[in-house]
Amino acid sequence: MVATLQLTDVGVRYGKQEVLSGVTTPALKGGEVTAVIGPNAAGKSSLFRRIAGLLDGPGDIRIGDGASGSPESHVCYMPQDTSVNTVLTVYESVLLARKQGAPRKVTDEDLQEVDRVLFSLNIEAIAFKGLNELSGGQRQLVSLAQVLVREPKILLLDEPTSALDLHRQVEVLALIRSLARDRGICVVLAIHDLNQVLRVADRVMVIDAGTMVTCGPVNDVITPTLLQAIYRVDGRIERCSRLCPHVIIDGPMGHA
Amino acid sequence: MAHSPAIAIPKGRGTYCVLVQRKKLVLLALGLVLILSVIADLGLGPARYTMREVVLALMGSPEVSQQISVVIWDIRMPVALMAVVVGAALSAAGAQMQTILNNPLASPFTLGISAAASFGASVALVFGVGFLPWAIDYVVSINALLMAMAAALFIHFMSQQRGVTVETIVLLGITLVFTFNALLALVQYLASEQALSAVVFWTMGSLTRATWPKLAITTAVVAVSLPLFMRRAWALTALRLGDDKAASFGVNVRWLRLETMMIISLLAAVPVAFVGTIGFIGLVGPHIARMLVGEDQRYFLPASVLSGAAILSLTSVVSKSIVPGTIFPIGIITALVGVPFLFSLIMSTRRRAW
């Protein structure tokens, strides 16, 4: 049985101020990738934190885990990248992510899993560097390793590729895509690059000014109308490659 | 993970295991330094005994005179062990303060807990006023303890307010230092000459105040606190990745901070209450530990404890050896011994610890 995530009228409140409301989705199933898009400060991160249980608010979050144990333990959330000032090594930080809430003793299986994850993200070379010595992109890959090593059923990624170069973006998104398929993980990720959304996502949720605008199949949602309504950009969607459509921006440079 | 398992995966775990072994060796070496230092500490004092006599007295051999036995066991032993336990407690408190406040400057001394204790003690010494009047024997210690706990709890409850950041807490701690120092100065100004010298001596910190009951209480506090920290080792280490990360791993960050601060306040306050202000250990012990074994709490905490204990014990040795026959107040010596040591470590390590 695969994991599912369903939101019904979910919102977020800070004190009395409502920063997000009315997020409703169909059941997001394991194996699917849902992209959350929208302008800066639209409420995307708040939504992720709400689903991860770090924020309170109205609405119903239904998690069907398809596995034993408490559902929350299968939800893994990767916050946006922040620099850290610690001499913990990459290896230690990934191991400690795996050991949270687990038996204290480190087993050989733990170490094997850490090795596997570092390998899959192609970051074994920096395994014994301190986190304070890494570049932004490397930090992001390590953060990703920290959530993957927890063997999530539901994976919430807040801008996991914002600091990566093009090659790494493609690589990481392909990995996320194949992880979702192979392991039946339900992936929800915030991402700004609409071309990457078109490549990786099955479904798109649009959030603007604290409310959900729409949530549907990627080709239905990303349209010239959306580009204009949400981003105030003139553009079109063209199928210029065999594999997937592309967003072409038509507006002049400097056009807001 | 997503790739075929047939591909050979490089063994990061091999390197990891080697590094873990190295950390265990460092802990062992620190332990050895500590033991040697304690033996040296027992051997030194105004009454000159040979090392052989000291060792025989320690083993309870009938060959040594009753007098030597009494000096070693009843006079030197509590002091030597008090140095170990106080060093361990202050260093562990400093280590966890630095961890939960995410700040390299955090220590019982810099956050005003020691200053509060000094003020509490001075009130007892100068005015003879005990905050718990029925405990006459321990009136200075109890006053110091209560003030130190009050300062720690004040810092904690302020840290729970909305919008209070780690930086605010450190700033708050510094204001406490100034406040209590001013109050201490006021008490000193009002004090008689005799009381004044008692206060000054108290604020210098001295292990010669150690007795078996005080040692037992301090040891009990350390013995209860350290396993509590060790049980939360993974969660405490996760705090070093930032609150958001730790919370995303399922750590209850607020609760962990509260628990840790409560334990810290005891660990920091009890030694200060018994032996006076000993600065520096709580700051330098954790820094040495971090440079030697990194920040994985499973090794960082024991390393902090051992290095704090070893520094204070070595300092005790030094305080007896500068002028033979005289024991200098240890609070004076800690910084003088510790600073060059820390400096040489900072200069010799290329890895930036903060």
Please give a structural write-up.
The complex is a heterodimer of chains A (256) and B (354). Chain A has 256 residues and is of the alpha/beta class. Chain A folds into two domains: 4-222, P-loop containing nucleotide triphosphate hydrolases (Rossmann fold), CATH 3.40.50.300; 223-256, no CATH class. Helix content of chain A is 32%, strand content 25%. Chain A is built from eight helices and 13 strands. Chain A has helices at residues 44-51, 90-99, 108-120, 136-148, 166-183, 194-200, 218-221, 224-231, and strands spanning 4-8, 10-14, 17-23, 28-29, 33-37, 60-64, 75-78, 154-158, 186-190, 203-208, 211-217, 235-238, 246-249. The longest helix of chain A has 18 residues, at 166-183. Chain A is globular and about 55 Å long. The model of chain A has no long low-confidence stretch (mean pLDDT 87). With 354 residues, chain B is mainly α. Chain B has one domain: ABC transporter involved in vitamin B12 uptake, BtuC. Chain B is 74% helix and 0% strand. Chain B contains 14 helices and no strands. Chains A and B meet through strand 7, helix 2, helix 3, helix 4 and helix 5 of A and helix 1, helix 9 and helix 10 of B.
User: Whole-Å distance between the termini of chain B?
Assistant: 33 Å
Structural class of chain B: mainly alpha
CATH architecture term of the largest domain in chain A: 3-Layer(aba) Sandwich
State the low-pLDDT regions of chain B, or none: 1-6
**Beta-strand residue percentage of chain A:** 25-35%
Structural class of chain A: alpha/beta
Please, how many helices of chain A? 8
**Shape, per Cα inertia axes of chain A:** globular
The chain pair forming the largest interface, with residue counts per chain, is: A-B, 52 and 38 residues
Give the fraction of residues assigned to helices of chain B.
over 70%
Report low-confidence residues of chain A grouped into runs of 5 or more: none
SS strand fraction of chain B: under 5%
Helix-strand sequence of chain A: EEEEEHEEHHHEHEHEEHHEE
State Rg of chain B: 22 Å
